[in-house]
């Protein structure tokens, strides 16, 4: 759990991106260290929690893994509203999914949360031989959009922990400085802002 | 109840040809002889005691099997009479004695007749008979699920294929052929007997939104304390109930419970989904009201085993009355929607 004298950040994180890009697989790799070749599709959305301890803070992630199919779009705002971090995922072996990722980024920008930590993730880096989206192109798009970029593989576990550590670090940096030692549990429930940062 | 006793009982070394459960799965037989179980340290008294316990258990077990098989056979006979040969008497029976049919459906349709009865009560049988040759097979039979979904997406291009449909089709395919499953999907989505379900899968998921609105209100009305707790913890039904509606409990619920819900769903329509949802919340109420956000979400997506026992949950669900309120809430939702549509048009802005 929390280290003494360490600030605790409660952060809602949402995963967006086309179906089949590996959102659920990314989360399961991060949380359980497992990967399935036949991951069953997500209906509506799935919810996970995970705690990451950094030296500067302990981050408690509330993770919403959304169903990526276009048809489920109307449910998505429910999940990204009030999020502290958003991970937009595409599949490096499919240009279509990259285009869809761009649409998600635009939609997030329209929401106008200045403090939102955004990551653009090119997943399935193990499928390099089938690559359709060049890293440079994605990197550039990410920079223009105020996001950081990473290529991951849920299959080989490449960059999965790095991704979530990077998000945690950025959250710690922007969360309002406060005297240390305040933990979530001490706050009254109705005062609590669960979807944002608590420092 | 009897069934549970059988399932729990380990037949041990006694060969018991009837030790299969309702779905025909043979219970794992214990290897090793009776002597093997008798440790050398056992005294004669202990040994005779253990043998008599074994015999008592055996009698109990056989008795329970007998009772169970006897009841099951009687139930199947009643159902066969009600259906008639190939379903010929069904409509007549339903018209004459709807209450009897409803009561029997609520007790669960016998597994050996489930496939046929599902087709009868959904109205898909008639659709199939009236549309010979519309369903075309795509590719070899092993890819049943793909074939049915593909056929549906071709048949209904507006709806197409949507994640979630696969769970419906998968459940149906356990009990009927591809073509029958296809027509049952058509009957449900296009509304052969009950209100059409296609709105669950159309752009914007309009029916999911409506159901979530209705469910939210019902929770507050039936379980006010929990409703307040949800407000405080900022929980709304889209966080846990959307897949209940989208897949009619066929996603991430135990199979035997899903089947029992489907029996009633096909006969009585979607209101059973609301009832079962409310019953689950009611059953777990005292635990749920104590939980903070994260634990609460987790609990709402992973109900404990004992909450999902059909013989406890379903009677509870049946006792919850929702029909009238569902109707009223539907109108309320439509009025609310009309207003917001108008305001969107006048603002020229998109409203999510
Ligand atoms: N080769 C490869 N396959 C992956 C990777 N991540 C996910 N998959 C596969 O891609 C499919 C879709 O994954 P899923 O996590 O369900 O995607 P989601 O719809 O975005 O949640 C599954 O068959 C996964 O096994 C990856 O990094 N590499
Ligand atoms: Mg998924």
CATH architecture of chain A: 3-Layer(aba) Sandwich
Biggest interface, chains and residues, is: A-B, 23 and 29 residues
Number of strands of chain B: 0
The radius of gyration of chain B is 24 Å
What would the CATH topology of chain A be?
Answer: Rossmann fold
**CATH class term of chain A:** Alpha Beta
Structural class label of chain B: mainly alpha
Question: In this structure, how is the largest beta sheet of chain B organized?
Answer: none
CATH class of the domain at 204-340 in chain B: Mainly Alpha
Specify the structural class of chain A: alpha/beta
The fold-level CATH name of the domain at 204-340 in chain B is: Cyclin A, domain 1
User: Are any ligands bound, and if so which?
Assistant: guanosine-5'-diphosphate, magnesium ion
- Give me the strand/helix succession of chain A: EHEEHEHEHEH
The CATH superfamily title of the domain at 204-340 in chain B: Ypt/Rab-GAP domain of gyp1p, domain 3
Number of domains of chain A: 1
Please state the second-level CATH architecture of the domain at 204-340 in chain B.
Orthogonal Bundle
The amount of helix of chain A comes to: 25-40%
Count of individual helical segments of chain B: 19
| End-to-end distance of chain B | 48 Å
Describe this structure in words.
The complex is a heterodimer of chains A (199) and B (352). Chain A is 29% helix and 24% strand. Chain A contains five helices and six strands. Chain A has helices at residues 23-32, 76-80, 95-111, 135-144, 160-174; strands at 7-17, 45-53, 57-66, 85-91, 117-123, 148-151. Chain A has a six-stranded mixed sheet with strand order 2-3-1-4-5-6, with helices on both faces. The longest helix of chain A is centred in the middle third of the chain and has 17 residues, at 95-111. Chain B has a domain at 204-340: Ypt/Rab-GAP domain of gyp1p, domain 3 (Cyclin A, domain 1, Orthogonal Bundle), CATH 1.10.472.80. Chain B contains 19 helices and no strands. Chain B has helices at residues 2-8, 34-37, 44-83, 90-96, 98-106, 114-122, 124-130, 144-155, 165-173, 178-190, 206-222, 224-232, 242-247, 255-268, 271-283, 285-288, 293-301, 310-318, 323-347. In chain B, helix 14 (255-268) crosses helix 15. Chain B is globular and about 85 Å long. The relative contact order of chain B is 0.07. At the A-B interface, strand 2 of A face helix 13 and helix 17 of B. The site of magnesium ion has 5 residues of chain A, from helix 1.
């Amino acid at each position: 759990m929390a280290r003494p004298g360490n600030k605790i950040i409660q952060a809602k994180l949402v995963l967006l991106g086309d179906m089949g890009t590996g959102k659920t697989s990314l989360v399961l790799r991060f949380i359980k260290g497992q990967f399935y070749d036949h991951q069953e599709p997500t209906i509506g959305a799935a919810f996970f929690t995970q705690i990451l301890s950094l030296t500067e803070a302990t981050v408690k992630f509330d993770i919403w893994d959304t169903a990526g199919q276009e048809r489920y779009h109307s449910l998505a705002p429910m999940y990204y509203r009030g999020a502290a971090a958003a991970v937009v995922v595409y599949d490096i072996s499919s240009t279509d999914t990259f285009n869809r990722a761009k649409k998600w980024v635009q939609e997030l920008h329209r929401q106008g949360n200045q403090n939102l930590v955004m990551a653009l993730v090119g997943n399935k880096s193990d499928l390099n031989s089938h690559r359709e989206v060049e890293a440079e192109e994605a990197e550039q798009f990410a920079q223009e959009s105020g996001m950081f970029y990473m290529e991951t593989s849920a299959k080989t576990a490449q960059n999965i922990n790095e991704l979530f550590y990077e998000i945690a670090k950025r959250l710690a940096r922007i969360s309002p400085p406060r005297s240390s030692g305040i933990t979530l549990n001490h706050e009254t429930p109705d005062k609590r802002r669960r979807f944002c940062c608590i420092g | 109840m009897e069934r549970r006793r059988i399932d729990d009982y380990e037949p041990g070394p006694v060969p018991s040809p009837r030790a299969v459960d309702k779905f025909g799965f043979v219970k794992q037989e214990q290897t090793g002889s009776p002597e093997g179980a008798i440790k050398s340290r056992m005294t004669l008294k202990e040994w005779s005691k253990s043998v008599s316990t074994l015999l008592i258990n055996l009698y109990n077990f056989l008795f329970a099997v007998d009772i169970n098989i006897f009841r099951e056979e009687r139930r199947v006979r009643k159902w066969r009479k009600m259906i008639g040969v190939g379903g010929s008497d069904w409509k007549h029976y339903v018209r004459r004695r709807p209450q009897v049919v409803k009561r029997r459906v609520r007790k669960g349709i016998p597994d050996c007749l489930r496939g046929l009865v599902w087709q009868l009560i959904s109205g898909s049988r008639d659709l199939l008979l009236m549309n010979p040759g519309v369903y075309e097979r795509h590719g070899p039979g092993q890819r049943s699920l793909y074939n049915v979904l593909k056929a549906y997406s071709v048949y209904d291009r507006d709806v197409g294929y949507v994640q979630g449909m696969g769970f419906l089709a998968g459940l149906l395919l356990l009990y009927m052929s591809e073509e029958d499953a296809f027509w049952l999907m058509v009957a449900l989505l296009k509304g052969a007997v009950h209100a059409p379900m296609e709105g669950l899968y159309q752009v914007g998921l309009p029916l999911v939104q409506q159901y979530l609105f209705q469910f939210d209100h019902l929770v507050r009305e039936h379980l006010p304390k929990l409703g307040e707790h949800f407000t405080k913890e900022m929980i709304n039904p889209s966080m846990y109930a959307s897949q209940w509606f989208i897949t009619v409990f066929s996603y991430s619920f135990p199979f035997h419970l899903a089947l029992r819900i489907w029996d009633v769903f096909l006969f009585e329509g979607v209101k059973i989904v609301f009832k079962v949802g409310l019953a689950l919340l009611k059953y777990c109420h005292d635990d749920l009201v104590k939980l903070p956000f994260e634990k609460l979400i987790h609990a709402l997506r992973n109900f404990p085993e004992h909450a999902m026992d059909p013989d406890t949950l379903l009677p509870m669900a049946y006792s919850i009355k929702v029909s009238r309120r569902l109707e009223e809430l539907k109108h309320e939702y439509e009025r609310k929607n009309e207003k917001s549509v108008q305001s969107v048009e006048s603002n020229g802005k998109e409203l999510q």
